[in-house]
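Worked Example 4.2. Read the sequence first, then its structure tokens.
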Amino acid sequence: MSRRRPEDYSRSVFINCPFDDGYREMFQAIVFCVVRCGFKARCALEIDDGSQVRIDKIFRIIETCKFGIHDLSRTEIDTQTALPRFNMPLELGIFLGAKRYGTGFVRDKSALILDAETYRYQKFISDIAGQDVRAHERDVGKAIAGVRDWLQATKTGGHLPGPAEILSAHKLFNSDLPQICERAKLRMGELTFNDLTNAIYDWCVVEAQQADGIAPRPTN
């Protein structure tokens, strides 16, 4: 029996990146860019089910996403364990494996691979040479530009706002986020991935309505 292609498959983007505090700004910027461009952001943080094995959760999300953003910039040695962090390369391998060996719609995938520096990946994962690897230099603006330009090049990207507009909108969203959390009776540190994506989506809707003169800008 063949699997049915999810309705939102062609607009779902799997985000494979670190989730620690040091990467939070970059993570939120990438999520914002994906949502602002009209796509659906997905990642392992969206499901809070203690009965589900983490790797099975990742398998399922990757299966239902046409697109994947994989940031390999944090593969350096951990200061506490003296070992590298390989979760991101592992999930990239699963994504590429699904594209190569999956069946039906599962093989219809496109990946964007991010790293901190141009060609740095060749020193620790040279087998991905030939993939679309872009350097963000740990700069939020460059990460947004890389994600936006990649999504624009897809068949489902349509006409997207430019990188500068998205970066400006992201800064406005960040300035509004404390008030958004206050209205939702949440603390900034309590935001789950689903809270974040919902807040971004709602904010983008209001901004679009405001641009059309339909809705006023939210206030406290």
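Now turn to a second chain, presented in exactly the same format:
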Amino acid sequence: IIANRIVPTTLELMDNETIRLIEAYRASGLPLEAAGCLLIDIDGSNTEVEKHTARVAEICQKCGGTVDVAKSAPESDTLWAGRRSIMGALASSSYTMITEDIVVPRTRLVDMVVKIKEIAQRYQIRIPTAGHAGDGNLHPCILCDDTDKAEMARVEQAIQEIFRTALSMGGTLSGEHGIGLLKRQFMPWEHSKETLDTMQSIKAALDPNNILNPGKIFQPEAV
């Protein structure tokens, strides 16, 4: 779609497990039997929307997809209400939910989703995945029980494998949620010591007294 110079307002990806959890939580008309789906929104003048919708449908069909165009504004609103309810749908289905925030090149999106499914199976945990396909941003959501130590050990291994896989595909650790406390230990996997030292130097120059978010990402001492 993007290679054809069409940039949708939104291009949202959901795998089958995510679709099923949303539909169980709030019936929205998403395709229960689909391995995954893209929820696509196109804006512009009536002529542009009609033209681009037809072209997007053609592209999706050429790629082997089944296309269903919303027939009315209420139908469209219902679909998007389902997508917006994703966090509630996933959280209500599990004692604990850990939402990750990786990015891979758009050309590797399918590869990454397949790898996440393999990782989930290997570590015997549930990882429904959704994301913003337009920029390669994926949110694997680990559904687990943080009171189960054995399961949480598997969760930690799975998360690390997801990070390593994303980086091996030319991706990054975070697309929009940031690094913070949870991911700072993985920064050396993505960045060289020289890069991290430069980041530390900039932080020290702008915040010599270490009063801005102290302890987040960089400690007062050397990296």
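Notes for the reader: The chain has a mean pLDDT of 94. The two ends are 42 Å apart (CA to CA).
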